[in-house]
């Protein structure tokens, strides 16, 4: 039988963790024939919740689940890790300045990066969900000099999936016919959800939107004033309607991210969006962890090259990338890189 894949989840006692665990253990992330060993990392006050989740995993009797360990020790949690899901983060408290938030998270993601550096398996893949996700990933990567930088990613798949959902609704079409939407930049309100290369059943969506909305100008207005802000601020909308934050969709997007990274994006389904270290593509400064159109081939993520970037897109990509550069400069000034 196959050696189990070791999956480490931080913030395992939290809400997203709770939604993730059962899907991982059932085989939805790594495959229906791949056994998994789970390592749940928590801070001391979160340990009970993680231990409770571990009891429930036992009660679910997943045939693929080879074991569950719960710990508050990062070194133990990341020993031999193949897939690291960094979900636990310090939320912004009342009156907390941005620098305080970055510093608090630096104190979490720096040591976790060092523990990954010390103990991870050679094929380790890291996805950061905890916010500010892109910059947390940058901090973790900076503390893991022996791990190739491209193994550190941040989640923008939820934004990508939200864009697909909004576009499908606007076109009154099933989401499965859509492909090649892109999220650029930071996982924040400055992100740029881009539909300029998107197609529906092979037909470009921009003309379809123009047709439905009464012309190209009306379509551009809808993108600028409704679609983009709605996708970027969807998290706040969910909190308002649901009374608590988006948990199921965040967990689902995390599963999608890892599944496509490990198993590959299917050529017929187009690209996805991943925040990964820039190689300078599309004018994004090298090293910033920024979201791009990405394909996954043979277990490797590749930025889709050669896409035309309109003036409309350029300004929005640049604005989000400038925010990322500002976050990087702030954590550098704090000595966290
Ligand atoms: P959640 O599980 O709901 O969220 C965890 C993180 O995911 C937050 O940083 C949150 O950011 C982020 N996130 C990213 N995308 C989304 C989205 N679409 N919707 C909601 N959140 C999103 O938080 P809980 O408070 O329930 O759980 C966090 C757990 O992490 C706690 O149990 C805590 O003890 C633990 N923790 C563990 C650490 C460790 O293992 N070393 C370190 C720090 C905390 P945002 O705040 O911006 O919503």
From TrEMBL:
Record-listed NAD(+) binding positions: 11-17, 105, 112, 129-131
Active site: 187 (proton acceptor)
Gene: mdh
Residue span, Lactate/malate dehydrogenase C-terminal domain: 156-328
Protein family membership: Belongs to the LDH/MDH superfamily. MDH type 2 family.
Native source species: Microterricola viridarii
Binding-site list for substrate: 92, 98, 131, 162
Residue intervals of the Lactate/malate dehydrogenase N-terminal domain: 6-145
Enzyme Commission (EC) number: 1.1.1.37
Reactions accelerated catalytically: (S)-malate + NAD(+) = oxaloacetate + NADH + H(+)
Name of the molecule in the record: Malate dehydrogenase
InterPro entries hit by this protein: L-lactate/malate_DH, Lactate/malate_DH_C, Lactate/malate_DH_N, Lactate_DH/Glyco_Ohase_4_C, Malate_DH_AS, Malate_DH_type2, NAD(P)-bd_dom_sf
GO molecular function: L-malate dehydrogenase (NAD+) activity
UniProt keywords, alphabetically: NAD, Oxidoreductase, Tricarboxylic acid cycle
Enzyme class label: oxidoreductase
Protein's job: Catalyzes the reversible oxidation of malate to oxaloacetate.
Pfam families, A to Z: Ldh_1_C, Ldh_1_N
């Amino acid at each position: 039988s196959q050696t189990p894949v070791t999956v480490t989840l931080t913030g395992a006692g939290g809400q997203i963790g709770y939604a993730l665990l059962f899907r991982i253990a059932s085989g939805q992330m790594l495959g229906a024939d791949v056994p998994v060993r789970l390592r749940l990392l928590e801070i001391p006050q979160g340990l009970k919740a993680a231990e409770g989740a571990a009891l429930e995993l036992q009660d679910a009797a997943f045939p693929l689940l080879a074991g569950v360990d719960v710990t508050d020790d990062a070194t133990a949690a990341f020993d031999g890790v193949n897939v690291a899901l960094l979900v636990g983060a310090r939320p912004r408290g009342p009156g907390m300045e941005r620098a305080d938030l970055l510093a608090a998270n630096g104190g979490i993601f720096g040591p976790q990066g060092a523990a990954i550096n010390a103990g991870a398996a050679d094929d380790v893949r890291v996805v950061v969900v905890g916010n500010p996700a892109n910059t947390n990933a940058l901090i973790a990567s900076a503390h893991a000099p022996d791990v190739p930088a491209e193994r550190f990613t941040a989640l923008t798949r939820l934004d990508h999936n939200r864009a697909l959902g909004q576009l499908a609704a606007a076109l009154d079409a099933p989401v499965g016919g859509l492909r090649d939407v892109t999220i650029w930049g930071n996982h924040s309100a400055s992100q740029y959800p881009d539909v300029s290369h998107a197609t529906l059943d092979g037909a470009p969506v921009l003309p379809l939107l123009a047709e439905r909305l009464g012309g190209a100008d009306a379509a551009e207005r809808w993108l600028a004033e409704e679609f983009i802000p709605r996708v970027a601020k969807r998290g706040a909308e969910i909190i308002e309607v649901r009374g608590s934050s988006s948990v199921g969709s965040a967990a689902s997007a995390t599963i999608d991210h890892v599944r496509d990274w490990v198993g590959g994006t299917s050529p017929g389904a187009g690209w996805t969006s991943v925040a990964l270290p820039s190689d300078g593509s599309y004018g994004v400064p090298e090293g910033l962890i920024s979201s791009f159109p990405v394909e996954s081939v043979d277990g490797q993520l590749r930025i889709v090259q050669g896409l035309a970037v309109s003036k409309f897109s350029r300004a929005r990509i640049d604005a989000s990338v400038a925010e990322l550069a500002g976050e990087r400069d702030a954590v550098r000034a704090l000595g966290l890189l």
